[in-house]
Amino acid sequence: xxxxxxxxxxxxxxxxxxxxxxxxxxxxxxxxxxxxxxxxxxxxxxxxxxxxxxxxxxxxxxxxxxxxxxxxxxxxxxxxxxxxxxxxxxxxxxxxxxxxxxxxxxxxxxxxxxxxxxxxxxxxxxxxxxxxxxxxxxxxxxxxxxxxxxxxxxxxxxxxxxxxxxxxxxxxxxxxxxxxxxxxxxxxxxxxxxxxxxxxxxxxxxxxxxxxxxxxxxxxxxxxxxxxxxxxxxxxxxxxxxxxxxxxxxxxxxxxxxxxxxxxx
Length: 265
Description:
- The chain is mostly helical and 265 residues long.
- It has helices spanning 5-22, 42-54, 58-71, 76-91, 95-108, 115-127, 138-153, 158-187, 191-204, 211-224, 228-241, 246-264.
- It has a domain at 1-129: Tetratricopeptide repeat domain (Serine Threonine Protein Phosphatase 5, Tetratricopeptide repeat, Alpha Horseshoe).
- The chain is built from 12 helices and no strands.
- Helix 1 (5-22) runs antiparallel to helix 4 (76-91).
């Protein structure tokens, strides 16, 4: 889902949070040439990791932040390193490791002031894995769940504000998947199965861009099932909520043509 403006906002917010986490830390010096285990003081290790991240080497940075936690697990630096490791994995698009690192942070420090950012990284990592509608949507559902949980727990944070924007996009994506399956059933003449999918869109995703078409498809399948009264009901709802919409025009024409045929018979 790259290229969208919400993604730019997400990266800006994530980067800003990373800067906040590292503010006041020493910079420069102590840069390792490899990430193999070498005992180092915690400040040198953390500074080396931050230096690598600043230079765009997120992969090495993540490994070094992990090394901070391994070598100095009880220091305040280890807590910062867990989140910075998650952010580094996110930058390099290793989303599963980003999620694992953030979840580890939350399991150890659930009430920490940076917990909202950890939830945000988890939500972003799922969000960036959303695939096309013709694929399994499990990760899309995980993204919606994570974004919703972020809003519920931390409604007044900037992360929740961004999550609200993304929830609309994710819900539209899930509705699109339901529509795709419904149209597939409809093409094969499985009218009832198709109706279940279209009704799900109308009932659970009524604020998405797919709702008008779903109402039209319900009109269409109701006529195919020989229930003109139901078709008229769906067309009426479509006309009331989306007057002038192209799908309402199609529904109106469809019912009018069916009525004409019925009178002719």
